[in-house]
């Protein structure tokens, strides 16, 4: 793939397609014992379904209202299929469109809203709002930084991420079963570039994830910085992790023509 953006091609909604993915998931379940199976479900354009006689016929046969409900039907099929095998489906928050499958877990990446909606409906949620947990977002302004995707998210920004929004009641908040940091690598050309974007922010995120939720009250950024300087940067050095130093970009990152910088503009936000 040599271009940015969302691919317009979507799955056919035939029985053969369902069977194909059942076969794939059968192999996935044999390899991975996790109770949670993430099937994606994000950024699904509906134009091809709207133009497809087969998709329109499927909508009519199933008594669905529109293409959003068609996607919900597809997700619901695999929600039931996985539940029959003792597993739970996880999907990005777009699976809320058209109605949420009964046992689905929502990974809320488009901010908090999807997670709040799902939790209020009694569904479990993994909070991963992009404005706090996307580690491909740049860590500082300036021409020496890597590809300027989205907005600046500093080490402190990540450290102060609160997974449980105030909008949730105590009962609803219990549905926030975890958090997740995401590192999308389409603008990173090497493992060292991934190291640079991921660390030390992943260390800050770990403190968020490992504390009981809600966790903000027990965090002290000044103390965290001290512990990073006193010990943890040395650990990363010993492991060969090419993290972003507090002083700024590494020399290899500063050279002209940073690897991975696309020509002709800034890539879109995920």
TrEMBL record:
Domain called Glycoside hydrolase family 20 catalytic: residue spans: 3-212
Class of enzymatic activity (EC top level): hydrolase
Keyword S-adenosyl-L-methionine listed: no
Residue ranges, compositional bias (Low complexity): 250-270
Coiled coil: none
InterPro entries reported for this sequence: Beta_hexosaminidase_sua/sub, GH, Glyco_hydro_20_cat
Segments of this protein annotated with the region Disordered: 242-270
SUPFAM superfamilies: (Trans)glycosidases
Record family assignment: Belongs to the glycosyl hydrolase 20 family.
Protein name: beta-N-acetylhexosaminidase
